[in-house]
Design goal:
It is a single chain. By secondary structure, the chain is an alpha+beta fold. The strands form six sheets. Strands 8-9-13-12-11-14 form a six-stranded antiparallel barrel. It has helices at 20-34, 58-86, 106-126, 164-171, 182-194, 207-216, 219-222, 266-269, 355-380, 412-424, 436-442, and strands spanning 40-43, 89-95, 132-138, 141-142, 180-181, 199-203, 239-240, 250-260, 280-284, 286-287, 301-305, 314-321, 330-336, 348-353, 388-393, 400-404, 429-435, 458-464, 468-471, 486-494, 497-504. The longest helix is centred in the N-terminal third of the chain and has 29 residues, at 58-86. Helices cover 30% and strands 24% of the residues. The chain has three domains: 2-222, Rossmann fold, CATH 3.40.50.720; 239-353, Beta Barrel (Elongation Factor Tu (Ef-tu), domain 3); 359-504, Threonyl-tRNA Synthetase, Chain A, domain 2 (2-Layer Sandwich), CATH 3.30.980.10. A hairpin with a 3-residue loop joins strand 18 and strand 19 (468-471). It has eleven helices and 21 strands. The structure holds zinc ion (ZN). Zinc ion binds next to helix 9. Zinc ion (ZN) is lined by residues 365, 369, 462, 470, 472, 474, 476.
């Protein structure tokens, strides 16, 4: 303000936007001095404070709205006759905070969003009266804004007390966001307005980033940006219930989010490219569905809402995958009836696995282990030369295990016989959680490069009791006889490896 003091063509008037008396007084002065015409009204006053919504004082919030919302309406209503006479322009300074909910600024964001929409209405209503309305969505500007903030202090017992220091950084404007110099900002906005701008314009540091981000990025994705502390549920890995309870086919879980396919990250959209039946990804806190991987295809099934009002809505799970980023499992599928999203975030739903498909996958997968153990047994007996396990696939129609080394075609009958013997033995199939040391010592198929998932100290192991064990995240039958008949189909050799394909009947 002091920079303007020496200018001779400027008259200062006192105007408190929360006081009708003050506004009326300013109006009379302007009317007298301008001959009843006002060409430009700039609603620039604004206030803000930083506080989690749960801790925000309602009276402070009401005062905030009094300045940011009602102040703009009061001043505009009062000065409207002068503007209409001049066919003038109203400039409302709104913030990028009007476009999205920012943490700890709920009341400020709310006030700016309200004013933004009212300004859009105002633009429509004033146009027939010959008055233009410019809505300036302002980004970060270097001003004394934060020095007007009340001192930040969380009330006692706040849920946010453990991150008070972090919120304080916002409250003092110390988060280090780029800022535009006030002079430059003012010059640009004045240029826009004098140049005849109407409608919404974006000015100030990061305002255009917000503009394009809003157009291109779904809000849930923006909430993952750095610097915004997310609720833990947004990043917590999905609990894999089937890893601990392989028999369970029904499971209640909580919805974290429901994302339309086009709003998934591009890498995750690709997971659905082979299916026209995938319209949404549903993320839950835990899952009973097997997640595709380790040579085993995903489970399919349904999710139902427990809410009686949504009893008709079912989510058909067509595929279950790990996302490209993070560890929140994607249940890919569609809602029936089509187009009706039957769940809300936070709601509990019942997950139900298709038992026939699960059973087939578990049999095929366990059969791979049994046949591999039979081949290892034949190596120990000296019938087949020593081999090293390479990889395996347990997809129906293409199940096979691959070894480094040579298995000749003539050994097919011996492999079949040993496999039959193991199946007949009805050996129990057990799940263990072992340390890396124990796992290296006792398991087949552990290569030098083998690692436990990040953050894990115990690895999941499947043991065919007395026959051998593997580190494995898959689903299994309870004993070897439950796989049914394993048919050794073919042995093929290529580049030093041997593939033994099989199926189950
Ligand atoms: Zn397994």
């Amino acid at each position: 303000m002091r920079l303007l003091r020496d200018l001779t063509n400027i008259t200062f008037l006192e105007l408190d936007v929360t006081s009708t008396k003050s506004i009326a007084s300013a109006y009379r002065t302007v009317e007298n001095q301008t001959g009843g015409k006002l060409h430009y009204l700039v609603n620039n006053s604004g206030a803000g404070f930083v506080m989690p919504l749960l801790d925000s004082d309602i009276e402070m919030g009401q005062h905030l709205f009094d300045v940011n919302v009602w102040g703009v309406v009061r001043v505009t209503q009062t000065f409207a006759p002068l503007l209409v006479r001049a066919k003038g322009t109203i400039v409302n300074n709104i913030s990028t905070a009007s476009c999205m909910g920012l943490p700890y600024q709920g009341m400020y964001c709310g006030s700016k969003a309200a004013t933004r929409l009212m300004s859009e209405t105002l633009a429509l209503e004033m146009k027939p009266l010959g008055v233009a309305v410019v809505i300036v969505i302002t980004g970060n500007i270097r001003t004394r804004w934060f020095s007007n903030y009340p001192k930040f202090e969380l009330p006692g017992g706040s849920y946010f007390s453990s991150i008070a220091e972090r919120i304080g950084v916002y409250a003092r404007g110390e988060q280090g966001h780029p800022q535009m110099e006030a002079n430059l900002y003012a010059t640009k906005v004045v240029g826009d307005v004098l140049g005849g701008a109407e409608g919404t314009i974006w000015r100030g540091a990061q305002s255009t980033i917000v503009k394009f981000a809003l157009a291109m990025i779904p809000t849930w994705l923006m909430s993952l940006g750095k610097g915004q502390r997310n609720p833990d549920t947004m990043t917590e890995p999905t609990k894999l219930i089937y890893q601990h309870d392989g028999e369970k086919l029904l499971h209640p879980s909580r919805i974290i989010s429901i994302v339309p396919l086009p709003e998934l990250p591009v890498a995750d959209q690709a997971l659905a490219k082979d299916s026209s039946e995938i319209e949404h990804a549903v993320i839950t806190d835990s899952t009973i569905f097997y997640v595709q991987g380790g040579g085993q295809p995903a489970d399919i099934g349904t999710m139902n809402s427990d809410a009686a009002t949504k009893a008709d809505s079912v989510f058909e799970v067509k595929s279950v995958r790990q996302p490209a980023q993070g560890s929140q499992v994607l249940h890919l599928g569609r809602f029936i009836p089509s187009g009706a999203i039957g769940f809300n975030a936070g709601e509990e739903v019942q997950q139900s696995v298709d038992s026939e498909i699960r059973s087939l996958h578990s049999r095929l997968h366990t059969a791979g282990h049994i046949m591999s153990l039979a081949i290892h047994a034949l190596c120990r007996e000296g019938i087949i030369p020593a081999l090293k396990e390479s990889k395996a696939s347990h997809y129906p129609d293409s199940a096979s295990v691959v070894f480094e080394g040579t298995i000749e075609g003539k050994h097919k009958d011996a492999i079949q016989a040993k496999t039959d013997e193991f199946v007949r033995s009805a050996t129990p199939v057990k799940i263990h959680w072992w340390s890396m040391e124990e796992l290296r010592e006792k398991c087949y198929g552990v290569t030098e490069a083998f690692e436990l998932p990040e953050g894990e100290v115990m690895g999941r192991v499947v043991e065919m009791e007395g026959l051998g064990s593997y580190p494995c995240g898959g689903t299994h039958v309870q004993d070897c006889s439950k796989v049914g008949k394993i048919v050794v189909k073919k042995i093929s050799r290529s580049k030093g490896t041997s593939r033994v394909s099989y199926t189950v009947e």
